Amino acid sequence: MFTFLRPLFFLASTVFVAGCVPMIPMYSIGDQRIERELTEEEIREGIIEGATNAGWHVQKQEAGRITLSLAVRAHLVVVEALYDSSNYRIDYVSSRSMKIQCEMGEPVRLSGAESCPDNKQPAYIHKNYRAWIENLNHSVLVALATV
């Protein structure tokens, strides 16, 4: 009888562990100093080129601000690249299916459109967020070096 229950227990354990994706502290790309002399237009073009090369999509463009999104499987991340003639930064805007937690001790938001009250950044987010943001930043730096 126990041999019948063993595979069932294994399957239940696997499903439970797969659902427990670790969360990490929120990560942002702070001010990135641009060492070369570039115009704001060249910086805008570099950010767009880098984002596109990294798989991100431009959602909206305004002077000094580009809204970007990345969809991976069921996950969606939206960020803003804020820039001027000497710096750029990348800030979290919202997400879907990224298991955010706005404050320590608050329940984890598992699905649907996710953002925190008063447009605050979450305290914790799905572990893949950091890699996606670092990849975006690296791609933007490469694109700006070749503009």
Overall description:
- The chain has three helices and eight strands, in the order H-E-E-H-E-E-E-E-E-E-H.
- The protein has a single domain (about 25-145), classed as Alpha-D-Glucose-1,6-Bisphosphate, Chain A, domain 4 (2-Layer Sandwich), CATH 3.30.530.50.
- The strands form two sheets. Strands 2, 3, 4, 5, 6 and 7 form a six-stranded antiparallel β-sheet that branches. A two-stranded antiparallel sheet has the order 1-8.
- The protein is α+β, with helices and mostly antiparallel strands and about 150 residues long.
- A hairpin with a 3-residue loop joins strand 5 and strand 6.
- Helix content is about 35%, strand content about 30%.
End-to-end Cα distance, whole Å, is 69 Å
Main β-sheet, in a few words?
A: 6 strands, antiparallel
Class derived from helix and strand content: alpha+beta
Element order: H for helix, E for strand? HEEHEEEEEEH
Q: What's the CATH class, please?
A: Alpha Beta
Number of strands: 8
